[in-house]
Automatic annotation (TrEMBL):
SUPFAM superfamilies: IVS-encoded protein-like
Highest taxon above the source species: Bacteria
Stretches of the chain forming a coiled coil according to its record: none
Taxonomic source organism: Chryseobacterium formosense
UniProt-recorded name of the protein: Intervening sequence, 23S rRNA
Length: 124
């Protein structure tokens, strides 16, 4: 088993290049402000899943990194919401991404609950 088999990883990894590409639609002065924050938070969703899985022998560590991933997902949604308000000409594309991150957030939350209730360190 690998983190690559997790639905939350697959979804986050699929969304990352979409967000990265979409962030370059923003005006030049936003590329290193809101655009950069969006790219970093989107990357953090994936990175925390991977790093947490690497520590999954320790249930509490694994859970902690899933919490970080969920928080980065929420941050990504917040950046997308700000872009939708500030740049209505791009709202259609960013709204789709926001909906996909909303879905991912639910999946991460459910997986966090499952890990908290079912992860057995002794079976690894």
């Amino acid at each position: 088993m690998s983190y690559r088999n997790l639905d939350i990883y697959k979804i986050a990894f699929e969304l990352f290049p979409k967000v990265h590409k979409a962030s370059f639609l923003l005006p030049k002065y936003e590329l290193y402000e809101l655009g950069s924050q969006l790219r970093r938070s989107s990357d953090s969703v994936i990175t925390n899943i991977v790093e947490g899985y690497g520590r999954s022998v320790y249930k509490n560590e694994y859970y902690r990194f899933l919490v970080f991933s969920h928080a980065s997902n929420d941050e990504t949604i917040n950046h997308l919401e700000k872009i939708i308000i500030l740049y209505p000409e791009f709202s259609a594309e960013f709204e789709i991404l926001k909906q996909q991150y909303d879905f991912l957030g639910g999946k991460i939350n459910n997986y966090k609950k499952w890990v908290k209730e079912n992860w057995n360190e002794n079976k690894l």
